[in-house]
Design goal:
alpha/beta, 2-enoyl-CoA Hydratase, Chain A, domain 1, about 50% helix, 11 helices, 6-stranded mixed β-sheet
């Protein structure tokens, strides 16, 4: 039976799933929202018909403004170890975000509003980041402006994505970037004007949904695992994965379609 959600909306339309954050007023990240995200991606992981996930916001102007600071404030009252409670809080967020990062299929972050702090970190877990270019929305790791550091992966994923030389100034200064600025440094893939934002996202999702799901999953695993390995180990992993996928029905379908000049229809087998 499908899980019921109160802080997000989950919809599956054929091969494309949509997860919309819906914690009013601005999708501040709380434990209850994180738990629902975790459950939603577990549900989608089990649904092998789903080949791509679009993660967005149901709230106009906000993707997510980051951690719910009131939750941190509550931890300072009556806790035997405030530090330990805060660490558990951020580790729960990290674990949920890791599930998105490691999801078997491509995940598109449709950043349709501000993505600050933990909201930026959430987008970093996705394989595509498409940001609305509306001249008002910003993205950035802004925790330092509060005397904090990113706690949901920002110090680790951002340098891996754009390089240390670009990441450190953004982290030190809490810089907020508009869509085109973020695109220029590789933080987002595309900056898209509002009138065609959703059609762009939907077209990308449809394109990915037609792809070979086993190959896409192995590509994702090879890249994310291999980047943390010495090159020799990464190449060994790639060879293993290539041998695995070459024996699938999808590979046969793709090769036959290539020679017959037809569009392949991949079944995920």
């Amino acid at each position: 039976m499908a899980q019921m959600y109160t802080l997000l909306r989950l919809q599956v339309d054929g091969k494309v799933a949509t997860v919309q954050l819906n914690r009013q007023p601005n999708n501040a990240i709380s434990i209850d929202l994180v738990e629902e995200l975790d459950s939603a991606f577990s549900e989608l992981e089990a649904n092998k018909q789903v080949r791509v996930v679009v993660l967005s916001s149901a709230i106009e102007k906000y993707f997510s403004v980051g951690a719910d600071l009131s939750a941190l404030g509550g931890m300072s009252q009556g806790q035997t170890s405030v530090r330990d409670s805060i660490k558990v809080f951020v580790q729960k967020i990290q674990a949920s975000f890791n599930k998105i990062d490691n999801f078997r299929a491509p995940v598109i972050a449709a950043i349709n509003g501000h993505a600050l702090g933990g909201g930026c970190e959430l987008s970093l877990c996705c394989d595509y980041r498409i940001m609305i270019d509306d001249e008002r929305s910003y993205i950035g790791q802004t925790e330092v402006l509060l005397g904090l550091i990113p706690g949901a992966g920002g110090t680790q994923r951002l340098p891996r994505l754009i390089g240390m030389a670009k990441a450190l100034p953004l982290l030190f200064e809490g810089t907020r970037l508009k869509a085109k600025e973020a695109q220029a440094i590789g933080l987002v893939h595309d900056a898209v004007e509002p009138e065609r934002f959703w059609s762009y996202v939907n077209d990308l999702a449809a394109k990915l949904a037609k792809g070979a799901p086993i190959a896409q999953s192995l590509i994702k695993s090879a890249v994310k695992s291999g980047i943390r390995m010495p090159l020799s180990q990464g190449l060994e992993l790639e060879a293993d994965y290539f041998a695995n996928v070459a024996t699938t029905q999808d590979a046969l379908t793709g090769i036959m379609a290539f020679f017959s000049k037809e569009e392949p229809e991949f079944k995920g087998t």
